[in-house]
Amino acid sequence: MTYRFLRLVLSLLVYVLLRPQVTGLHNIPRRGPVILASNHLSFIDSIVIPLVVPRHVTFIAKAEYWTGRGLKGRVSRWFFTTMGHIPVDREDPRAGQRSLDDALVVLKRGGAFGIYPEGTRSRDGKLHQGHTGVAWLALAGSAPVVPVALRGTDKVQPVGKRIPRPTRGIQVHFGAPIDPSRQLTAGARPAQVRRELTDHVMSSIHKMSGQELAA
């Protein structure tokens, strides 16, 4: 009930203040495991995507959001816990694999998991090469990958800015699902398969986002 109430309130705020243009929602399976792989322009990306998708989407978030002190710390901890996000300690040398293991649990339960293949927010607005963790997750979890392209969220909350500013006209585009099993070919090395699948996902994101590719 708390999650539904928070989602309702935030959805109203997002649609009134930002007026997001959303396309391709029909590409998201109504049930079963699915990975939403998106470009990453702003902190609010992890808020916008779960609010426009008609399913509960889990994201990985840095552990600092759960360890803050005072009123701000309590609000942050309550918010990220209520949204169902998973904390990851970025100082842990195995943080990357631990986050993938946690994501795999979500998929095995038939859930939806959101991931940014670039690994972090783009500071120059360009689309950077994706890390192959998204492919590992798709193959291990037998989950289709729905590419997601965000436009304009960097204007709402640019990198380094703590307070969002209402900017209408952001766009959220969901592409056709990518079946990871179709990437498997006899004799192909696992690393090669993961690289090719990741590049396929990033190519789909690029076509929708229109971003310049990083060198």
Strand and helix map with partners:
Elements: H1 2-17, E1 21-23, E2 34-38, H2 45-52, E3 57-58, E4 60-62, H3 64-67, H4 70-82, E5 86-88, H5 95-108, E6 112-115, H6 133-140, E7 145-151, H7 153-156, E8 171-174, H8 190-209
Parallel strand pairs: 1-8, 2-6, 2-7, 3-6, 4-5
Antiparallel strand pairs: 7-8
Helix pairs in contact: 5-6, 6-8
Distance between the termini: 46 Å
> Residue-averaged pLDDT, rounded?
92
What's the gyration radius in Å?
A: 17 Å
Distinct helical segment count: 8
Strand element count:
8
CATH hierarchy class name: Alpha Beta
Q: Write the H/E string, N to C.
A: HEEHEEHHEHEHEHEH
Note poorly predicted spans: none
The CATH topology is given as: Glycerol-3-phosphate (1)-acyltransferase
Shape designation: globular
CATH architecture: 3-Layer(aba) Sandwich
Largest sheet: 6 strands, mixed
Beta-strand percentage range: 5-15%
Number of domains: 1
Helix proportion range: 40-55%
Q: What is the fourth-level CATH superfamily?
A: Glycerol-3-phosphate (1)-acyltransferase
User: How do the strands line up in the largest sheet?
Assistant: 1-8-7-2-6-3
GO molecular function: 1-acylglycerol-3-phosphate O-acyltransferase activity
Domain Phospholipid/glycerol acyltransferase: 34-153
Keywords: Acyltransferase, Transferase
Protein name: 1-acyl-sn-glycerol-3-phosphate acyltransferase
